[in-house]
Design a protein that fits this description.
Elements lengths: L6 E6 L3 H13 L6 E7 L3 E3 L18 E3 L8 E4 L1 E6 L4 E5 L7 E4 L2 E4 L3 E3 L12 E2 L3 H20 L3 H7 L1 E5 L3 H17 L12 E5 L11 H13 L3 E3 L4 E5 L2 E4 L5 E3 L2 E4 L3 E3 L1 H4 L11 E2 L12 E3 L4 E2 L13 H19 L15 E7 L2 E6 L2 E5 H14 L3 H16 L12 H8 L8
Helix pairs in contact: 1-7, 2-3
């Protein structure tokens, strides 16, 4: 390959799909100086999303579910940037490090689109403004601080009705993410309540709202029924076949006879949509806005462009339906894309292989050392499924240091109560504003 011009591979997105594409490309082209690989991501860390729901509940320290992207690579170049636009015609991606920074034009020969997805609020009035999404590490930390703040506020509140409103937490969405969040939040609320002497047990309420007739459609009905029964037994309320129509700072409007739920906390895990940049691209998309790719994960009519992960509609040859947007699929998609790009660069286009993968299984924690699991047709529930979930995902967590840190977090949780320290992070302008209003000394 030394007699050929340098080939530039640009990977946009540092989630599971983008990271594993970069990792496999690095292995393939370690000694090839005429291949440049660049990974772009808005954060300089990789987030292990399967454990994200344990951050707001203080089961895991926030820093322990992330790892610095630069530490993964020796050949791949990483750039922490916000991508602004992609010009498929001229093979250019424009990006900048921050809003006030210089705009960079990055040229490529091969482009891998792995931008993932963003939270979708479906245009419902007030929902985007008055809810907490659970998509990023910042989301999880913001939710954790807010929940603790609600307890601190309620402990001071004398009005019983207002206290109940502060201590009512509504989770929108009954999929895996919603159920996991509700279970962890319930554990955190019940174990932390003892620190607040003015709060009674019956004042704390977790409500999960789901538009369909069942929770967790990703798993079999009997396991979903087990999860529903177990979570109800632990005090979580479920509003099935119920839709949220709007939200305000102090209530959530729903479409059943009880017109609204008084609450200061709406956690929105009810839907996702492809990254907004995907909508600006001139390639074909499905009804959900995902890029339609062929069996090689290539974007038709755009040579050298691949798409994978949440932002792509990847056909399953066995069913004709798209593959689900899960981490286990994204990891394998990244590996296949890397292999096919390498074959194309080396002039072996006919040796490319289509993407084929059968789901290994699904696991979901329910909190309180309980989980459900379905692996290769075998079903598990209860404590064993919980142990299985933790064992499998701990093994998948990248980095030995992260594995040890998370294992220690889990071990400490067996013997010590949850951490209720509220970390308030202020912007520079907030500090200046506070300093202009000195405290009044009442002593």
């Amino acid at each position: 390959m030394s007699d050929k011009a340098t080939k530039r591979i640009l990977i946009v997105g540092g989630g599971f799909a983008g990271m594993y594409t970069a990792l496999h490309l690095e292995k393939i082209f370690t000694k090839d100086k005429d291949v440049e690989i660049t990974l772009l991501n808005r954060d300089n860390f990789f987030l292990f999303t399967p454990m994200l729901s344990e951050v707001p509940s203080s089961s895991i320290e926030a820093k322990h579910v992330i790892a610095p992207i630069r530490a993964f690579f020796s050949k791949v170049s990483f750039q922490e940037v916000e991508v602004h636009s992609i010009d498929l015609n001229n093979h250019i991606v424009t990006a900048s490090h921050c809003p006030g920074c210089k705009i960079y034009n990055m040229e490529y020969d091969y482009l891998v689109l792995a931008l993932g997805s963003v939270t979708s609020f479906y245009g419902l009035p007030g929902v985007a403004k008055n809810s907490f999404p659970m998509k990023t590490l910042s989301d999880a930390m913001a939710l954790r601080n807010h929940v603790i703040d609600m307890f601190e506020h309620a402990d001071l509140e004398k009005d019983a009705q207002m206290r109940r409103q502060l201590l009512t937490f509504v989770v929108a969405g009954g999929g895996f993410a919603g159920v996991e969040t509700a279970g962890e939040l319930n554990d955190f609320a019940q174990t932390s309540r003892k620190y607040y002497r003015n709060i009674r047990p019956d004042e704390v309420k977790i409500i999960l709202v789901e538009s369909s007739s069942r929770i967790m459609p990703e798993i079999s009905e009997d396991l979903a029924a087990f999860a529903l029964k177990r979570l109800r037994k632990r005090g979580i309320e479920f509003c099935l076949q119920t839709k949220i129509v709007s939200a305000a700072p102090d209530k959530v409007e729903i479409d059943i006879s009880v017109d609204h739920i008084p609450t200061n906390t709406l956690i929105w895990v009810a839907g996702t949509a492809p990254h907004p940049i995907i909508g600006t691209l001139p390639c074909e998309k499905d009804k959900r806005g995902r890029i339609i790719v062929n069996e090689y994960l290539e974007v038709p009519d755009w040579p050298g462009v691949c798409a994978l992960g949440d932002c792509a509609r990847i056909p399953d040859p066995k069913t004709g339906n798209p593959y689900p947007p899960t981490a286990q699929h994204a990891v394998r998609e990244g590996k296949q894309v890397a292999k096919n790009i390498a074959l194309t660069i080396r002039g072996k286009n006919d040796d490319k292989k289509p993407f084929k993968f059968s789901t290994i299984g699904t696991l979901a924690p329910l909190g309180h050392r309980t989980a459900i699991a379905e692996i290769k047709g075998f079903k598990f529930s209860g404590f064993f499924a919980w142990w299985l979930w933790r064992t499998i995902y701990l093994s998948k967590l990248p980095g030995l240091d992260r594995k040890i840190r998370v294992a220690l977090d889990w071990t400490l949780n067996l013997f010590f109560p949850r951490d209720i320290v509220q970390l308030k992070v202020f912007m520079k302008s907030d500090v200046l504003e506070q300093s202009s209003h000195p405290e009044t000394d009442t002593q």
